[in-house]
Amino acid sequence: MYLSACETAVSGSGHADEALHLAAAFGFTGARNVIGTLWSVGDSSSMQVAAQVYRRLADRGGDTAVLAMAVDAAMRSLRGECGTNDVLRWAAYIQYGP
């Protein structure tokens, strides 16, 4: 599952009763793997990452190892495009799951 929204893997520190973030909540409801973000990301980066991840999953199947490699490959591609100094653009994405 790809959550294409900002801060989907961040829990709220201001609300003690909201200890789960959205990605973890989907995991607890049965989603095996969830891709979320740790901070706000731009639309173009999100579209690029989603396209690359889904393309790799379509080519190689959708198990956990392939998903982790797909997220890693998308991050490396985005980092190569924007440079290592623009860490806020390429390092926001995480894969949550077993």
Q: Could you characterize what this model shows?
A:
It comes from Catellatospora citrea. It is a single chain. This protein has helices spanning 22-28, 43-60, 64-82, 87-90, and strands at residues 34-37, 93-96. The protein has 98 residues and is mainly alpha-helical. It has a two-stranded antiparallel sheet. Helix 2 (43-60) crosses helix 3 (64-82).
Tags for this model:
flat, 4 helices, 98 residues, mainly alpha, 49% helix, two-stranded antiparallel sheet
Number of helices: 4
- How many strands appear in the DSSP assignment? 2
Q: Average pLDDT, to the nearest integer?
A: 79
Outline the low-pLDDT stretches. none
Strand content: 5-15%
End-to-end gap: 13 Å
Largest sheet report: 2 strands, antiparallel
The chain-level structural class is mainly alpha
Q: Helical percent range?
A: 40-55%
Q: Report the radius of gyration as a whole number of Å.
A: 14 Å
Element string (H = helix, E = strand): HEHHHE
Task: Give the strand order of the largest sheet, numbering strands 1, 2, ... along the chain.
Answer: 1-2
**Shape summary:** flat
Domain CHAT: 2-97
Pfam family, one: CHAT
Protein name: CHAT domain-containing protein
InterPro entries: CHAT_dom
